[in-house]
Amino acid sequence: MSADRVVLVTGGNRGIGRAIAERFVRDGYRVAVTARSGEGPEGTLTVRADVTDAAAVDAAFTEVEQKLGPIEILVANAGITKDTLLMRMSEDDFDSVVSTNLGGTFRVVKRASKGMLRARFGRVVLISSVVGLLGSAGQVNSAASKSALVGFARSLTRELGARGITTNVVAPGFIETDMTAELPEETQKQYKASIPAGRFATADEVAGVVTWLASDDAAYISGAVIPVDGGLGMGH
Asked: ∠ CA 134-139-140 to the nearest 5 degrees?
């Protein structure tokens, strides 16, 4: 196992991204995170980047390459939500979510692929959501951007699969975060009733799947969508 490889997690300063970065640090990888504000977890290099800006992405990658080395594992996690029903959704509500969640993935994967092609090794993990394939009222923009990652990963697998580069999608369901903790207890109960596992996931349960996909054990898995949702999205 080459656990000293260089990892970049976008949006690694909070939530699932932070848990993923922490897990890679624990496993002995060299880890950088992008953040628009705030800092990544202890033991990581934090670089400033807005994934909607190709020049900022390039500068962030260059900084990581200079300080840690070529990026071998990329976790495209940065994302935003602007939830509202379609009839009320503005052009900006739609465009900004797609530009961050899908366009941001395009920009960081394109920049990372240069080094991966040179090394003939790479692991690309795209963080989607159960909503991408299950759908959710009020999330046309978010669900569209997250389901698009599946086509992205499968097309990239066909392009780069013969070069030692895998691309996979992880689709988390409901996760215990500050956001879900703020939901009214009755709402939380309703959500949990629809999840066969009967509980929300911990962010670390998602992180464990991501680090496994980055490992040598998962070298023959590419173009896959791995749900981490307690059975919520079965059949999707």
From this structure: 85
Q: Which two tokens stand for residue 126?
A: 């795209």
pLDDT in tens, 177-233: 877 888 889 989 999 999 999 999 999 999 999 999 999 999 999 999 999 999 999
Q: Tokens in use for 33?
A: 């995170």
Domains of the chain: 6-175+202-227 (3.40.50.720)
Instruction: Encode pLDDT of 98-143 as tens digits.
Output: 999 999 999 999 999 999 999 999 999 999 999 999 999 999 999 9
Cα 169 to Cα 225: distance, rounded to the nearest angstrom: 5
Phi/psi for 218 (5° steps) reads -105, 25
The total of other beta-carbon atoms located within 10 Å of residue 181's CB is 9
Residue for token digits 């963080």? 127
